[in-house]
């Protein structure tokens, strides 16, 4: 009889004009159960062959249909058990957490009642899927389950999939507690334990969990090193693990300021996820692309990604820190700081939600301070700065959190020296640029105050007829410069390059200019700017 690999290869070659599913169905219609069993056994016993087959079919949903069809054919008990276990993993990859968890609970429940058909080699994977599934559907209940799993093993992360999954869940859950130090330790322990596991999927996944925590901690070089190790394990693997790798790489590239590369990586991964029906990965990739659109100053693009992400999240059962964060920034960009404050009051009154955001997004705490002050709410600004300081104190060895606290506190206190340090020490590109812009704005404001105090402030030219003279005079020096350059016909990208600022910041200043002057387009700005802007020096 041919080997599993030979059977799969021969089958796909024999039916080159059809999918693997239709080929298996033809075998089933001929009652060729022996050959069908060989093919299906290859799918569940050879991980590399499995994911290659998934890639050739091009759709997780089609493979789910294949497995569900096979389960009706009266195959041998051990193969049926393996196929049911495989179905759990496929449902997880497709984002169907409910069905995955229900199947896993059913399998493990039967085992607890004395059914010994589940092979030990795959039992751990099913238990791990149960751990992840519970965490996805209910973070608190999932965390409690993960803690129970580790207690059952004496608190030790052992070399089996169930304890590794529990460690990965707790590594993420600890972010809500503000304990990145312990989350990073757990991720390191799990990655070390996974090194000797035979499954490349588990080795890869635990390395990605570690790399993700390292990105949170701002340890970008070490994160890259861990990802290179993980990449060596990908080899011929595709599907969910490859998409997880691409999403994390896009996140790392964005942190490093390599925005175009990050966007390309996320766009390619999104196209693959949609094409394969791997819905679990679609919302986070859309949210990441929305964040990148904001960094490029593309508000319209960010709005589209937010809408698509909201639709992909469906009933909202799977919370997304990145989505919530991007939606908040889009709200501020479209409707101003007061609307953003309303959003913050609705969605971030809970300290755990703020804590998770501030741990995952350097610069978010300072953004809260800046937006709260602009919206006239010093209490919110103080809350955000205090939260950032608390996280830095709890994780004294995590430099990224210390710098974030320095930025937020210095912005609240109006401390230029602290902002200088934040602008030079922060390892996150956007946070570093934001600190530099906050420093410039603070110094501009102090310069205007001094000029006004000694009575030598320049008299602005007359505004266009019908414009509010008080409003037009209220533009800051930076806004005047942005308005002049835009009036000369420069794009946001060109203005950003000229001023050494981000396109997102240019877009922010442009919206303020429109609001203050009662204008609605760049054309209107170009028509009137020369009447009230000082001539370029």
What's a concise summary of this model?
The protein is mainly α and 537 residues long. It has 30 helices and no strands. Helix 7 (97-112) crosses helix 8 (120-137), helix 14 packs antiparallel against helix 15 (259-276) and helix 16 packs antiparallel against helix 17.
SSE layout and pairing:
Layout: H1 4-14, H2 20-29, H3 33-45, H4 47-57, H5 60-70, H6 77-93, H7 97-112, H8 120-137, H9 139-152, H10 161-177, H11 180-194, H12 200-216, H13 220-234, H14 240-255, H15 259-276, H16 282-295, H17 299-313, H18 321-335, H19 337-347, H20 351-360, H21 364-374, H22 378-394, H23 399-413, H24 416-425, H25 429-453, H26 469-473, H27 477-487, H28 492-499, H29 503-517, H30 522-532
Helix pairs in contact: 1-3, 2-5, 3-4, 3-6, 5-6, 6-7, 6-8, 7-8, 8-9, 8-10, 9-10, 10-11, 10-12, 11-12, 12-13, 12-14, 13-14, 14-15, 14-16, 15-16, 16-17, 16-18, 17-18, 18-19, 20-22, 21-22, 21-23, 21-25, 22-23, 23-24, 24-25, 27-29, 27-30, 28-29
């Amino acid at each position: 009889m041919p080997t599993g690999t030979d059977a799969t290869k021969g089958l796909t070659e024999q039916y080159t004009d059809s999918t693997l599913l239709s080929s298996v169905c033809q075998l089933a219609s001929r009652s060729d159960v022996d050959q069908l069993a060989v093919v299906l056994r290859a799918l569940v016993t050879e991980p590399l062959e499995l994911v290659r087959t998934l890639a050739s079919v091009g759709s997780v949903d089609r493979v789910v249909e294949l497995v569900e069809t096979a389960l009706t054919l009266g195959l041998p008990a051990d193969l049926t058990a393996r196929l049911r276990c495989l179905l759990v993993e496929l449902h997880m990859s497709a984002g169907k957490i409910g069905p995955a968890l229900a199947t896993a609970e059913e399998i493990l429940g039967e085992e607890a009642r004395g059914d010994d058909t589940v092979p030990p080699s795959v039992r751990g994977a099913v238990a791990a899927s149960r751990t992840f599934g519970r965490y996805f559907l209910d973070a608190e209940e999932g965390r409690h389950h993960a803690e129970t799993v580790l207690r059952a093993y004496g608190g030790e992360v052992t070399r089996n999939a169930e304890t590794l999954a529990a460690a990965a869940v707790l590594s993420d859950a600890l972010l809500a507690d503000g304990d990145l130090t312990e989350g990073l330790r757990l991720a390191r322990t799990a990655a070390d334990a996974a090194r000797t596991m035979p499954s490349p999927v588990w080795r890869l996944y635990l390395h990605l969990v570690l790399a993700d925590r390292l990105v949170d901690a701002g340890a970008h070089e070490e994160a890259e090193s861990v990802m290179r190790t993980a990449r060596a394990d990908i080899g011929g693997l595709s599907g969910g693990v490859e998409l997880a790798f691409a999403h994390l790489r896009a996140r790392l590239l964005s942190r490093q300021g390599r925005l175009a590369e990050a966007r390309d990586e996320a766009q390619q991964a999104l196209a693959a996820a949609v094409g394969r029906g791997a819905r679990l990965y679609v919302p986070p990739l859309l949210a990441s692309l929305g964040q990148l659109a904001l960094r490029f100053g593309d508000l319209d693009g960010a709005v589209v990604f937010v809408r698509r992400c909201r639709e992909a999240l469906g009933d909202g059962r799977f919370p997304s820190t990145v989505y919530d964060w991007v939606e908040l920034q889009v709200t501020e960009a479209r409707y101003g700081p007061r609307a953003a404050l309303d959003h913050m009051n609705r969605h971030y009154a809970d300290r755990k939600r703020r804590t998770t955001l501030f741990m995952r997004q350097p610069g978010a705490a300072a953004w809260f301070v800046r937006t709260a002050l602009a919206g006239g709410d010093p209490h919110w600004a103080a809350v955000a700065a205090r939260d950032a300081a608390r996280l830095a104190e709890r994780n004294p060895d995590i430099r990224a959190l210390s710098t974030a606290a320095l930025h937020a506190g210095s912005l609240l206190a109006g401390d230029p020296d602290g902002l200088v340090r934040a602008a030079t020490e922060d390892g996150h590109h956007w946070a570093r640029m934001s600190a530099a812009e906050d420093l410039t704005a603070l110094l501009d404001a102090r310069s205007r105050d001094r000029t006004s105090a000694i009575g030598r402030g320049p008299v602005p030219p007359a505004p266009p007829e019908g414009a509010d003279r008080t409003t037009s005079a209220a533009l800051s020096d930076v806004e005047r410069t942005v308005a002049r350059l835009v009036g000369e016909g420069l794009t946001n990208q060109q203005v950003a390059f000229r001023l050494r600022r981000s396109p997102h910041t240019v877009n922010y200043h442009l919206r303020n200019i429109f609001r203050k002057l009662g204008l609605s387009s760049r054309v209107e700005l170009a028509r009137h700017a020369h009447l009230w802007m000082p001539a370029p020096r």
